[in-house]
Every structure is written in C-alpha cells, then in structure tokens.
C-alpha cells in the first residue's frame, strides 16, 4: 500500500454494498477501510482521520445523519469530505433540507463511475467549510457574523482590516491573489491606496496568526501577491 494513496473510510452495513465499494475504490487507487455501523464509523474516523468518508444514511446504532453531525463537530474530522449514500431520491431531497454538513450525496443505485468522479472532486476541493456563517481552513475558524477568529481554540486578535483580509483569503484557499485584487476585495474600493498598504496589513495578519500559534499560513508569491495555505500541517 502506497503512503500516497488517499485513504477512504466506508461506513456501510450491507455486505454486498461494502464489497462493491471496496473493490471499486481500491481499483481506483484508494486505500480503503470499512466500518459497518455509525458509532464505529465515527470512532474510526476520530482515531485515525481518513481523507474522505463514504457514509451510508441508514446504519445500525447511529444514523448517517447523526454520524455526519458528530464528525462535523469534532475538530479532527470537521474538514474531512463526506459523501452521503442514500437509498432513494426522496431521502436525498430530505437530507438536502437538513444542514448536516455533508459535501455531496449519491443516490442508490449509484453508478460507480459517477461515484468515483465525485470522490475525486471532493478530494481535490480545498478544505473550506461554511456552515452557519463560519469558515474553517487548516485549523483556523472564522465567524463572519461575530467577527471572531480562532486557531485551535485560541482567539486570533485582529483589527477590522486584517479580519476582512483573512476572510477573503479563507474563502478561496490556495488561490493566489494579487495585491490589487486584495485591495478591491478587502477594502471594497477600487482603491486609491498604494498596494504596499496590503503588505503592511498582511504583515499584521501574519503576526496575529503567529501569536495564536498559526504559522506559515499566508504564503508570499514573489512579485505578485499572497495565498492562504489550506493544508492543516502548514498551520501547525
Ligand atoms: Ca444501510
């Protein structure tokens, strides 16, 4: 098994479904582990967080919905992409109406090709999650409503400009912004300001992040601008 293969946790109770999923995910190059009830699925994800979770809706002990909610609450698992497997399209519609934080839904009987395409796309997606006005990237959490930012439960003390800069960067992790794009988006004017103003505030933002323990989060793209690292290790 290659260390480079993304790891997928399958939480599904029907043996036939498990075998189909396991076979096809392994064929697609993923490393697979399986749990057959909701409770054990959550436990396994917390103990050894996978890169993606395929989560059945109807599960013994703990439903997929409840499992999803718990995974979204825990710091170790809240950024893991979750694809919910549902039995009928009505269930899928029902789940859509609930804010449980799944990234995607696939209705059984699903096409394996489609499922693999969705797995690939979920694994590529930068890890931003926005639920109830909160953004979470690489261990940093920002609450847009209350203007509070935290890293690992520690408050990040930010001025209003630094806060807006952080929000712009967090909404598009890994995207490279030029200084003038940041001026437009964080200052909200086609600014008369010198682009060096951006450097000053990025400097303040970095120091504030570092004081809360989040280092090397804002990357400099020499001669161009800045980007936010979305990989959580970069924030450690
Ligand atoms: Ca089931």
- On the 0 to 100 scale, the average pLDDT is 85
Looking at CATH, the homologous superfamily of the largest domain is: Response regulator
Q: Any idea what the CATH architecture of the largest domain is?
A: 3-Layer(aba) Sandwich
Q: Which CATH class of the largest domain?
A: Alpha Beta
Helical percentage = 25-40%
Small molecules bound = calcium ion
Please work out how many helical segments DSSP would assign: 8
Give me the Rg, rounded.
Answer: 20 Å
- Biggest beta sheet attributes: 5 strands, parallel
Q: What would you call the quaternary organization?
A: single chain
Number of strands: 13
- Low-confidence region ranges: none
What is the CATH topology descriptor of the largest domain?
Rossmann fold
- How many domains is the backbone divided into? 2
Question: Can you put this structure into words, describing what you see?
Answer:
This protein is an alpha/beta fold. The chain has two domains: 7-123, Rossmann fold, CATH 3.40.50; 134-235, Orthogonal Bundle (Arc Repressor Mutant, subunit A), CATH 1.10.10. The protein contains eight helices and 13 strands. It has helices at residues 15-27, 38-47, 64-73, 89-97, 112-124, 160-171, 179-187, 196-211, and strands at 7-11, 31-35, 52-56, 82-86, 104-107, 129-131, 134-137, 140-143, 148-151, 154-156, 177-178, 218-221, 225-228. The strands form three sheets. A five-stranded parallel sheet has the order 2-1-3-4-5, sandwiched between helices. The two termini are 27 Å apart. 31% of the residues are buried. The model has no long low-confidence stretch (mean pLDDT 85). It binds calcium ion. Calcium ion binds at residues 13-14, 56, 58-59.
């Amino acid at each position: 098994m290659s260390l480079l293969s993304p790891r997928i946790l399958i939480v599904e109770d029907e043996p036939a479904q498990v075998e189909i999923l396991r076979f096809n995910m392994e064929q697609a190059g993923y490393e697979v582990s399986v749990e057959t009830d909701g409770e054990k699925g959550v436990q396994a994800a917390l103990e050894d967080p996978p890169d993606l979770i395929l989560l059945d809706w109807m599960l013994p002990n703990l439903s997929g919905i409840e499992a999803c909610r718990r995974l979204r609450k825990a710091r170790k698992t809240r950024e893991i992409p979750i694809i919910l497997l549902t039995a009928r399209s009505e269930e899928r519609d029902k789940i859509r109406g609930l804010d449980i934080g799944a990234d995607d839904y696939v209705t059984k009987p699903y096409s394996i090709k489609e499922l693999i395409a969705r797995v690939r796309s979920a694994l590529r997606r930068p890890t931003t999650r926005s639920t109830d006005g909160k953004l979470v990237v690489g261990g940093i959490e920002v609450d847009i409503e209350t203007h509070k930012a935290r890293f690992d439960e520690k408050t990040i003390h930010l001025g209003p400009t630094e806060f807006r800069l952080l929000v712009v960067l967090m909404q598009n992790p890994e995207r490279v912004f030029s200084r003038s794009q940041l001026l437009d988006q964080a200052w909200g004017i086609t600014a008369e300001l010198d682009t060096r103003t951006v450097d000053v505030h990025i400097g303040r933002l970095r120091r504030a992040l570092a004081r809360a323990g989040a280092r090397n989060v804002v990357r400099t793209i020499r001669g161009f601008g800045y980007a936010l690292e979305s990989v959580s290790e970069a924030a450690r």
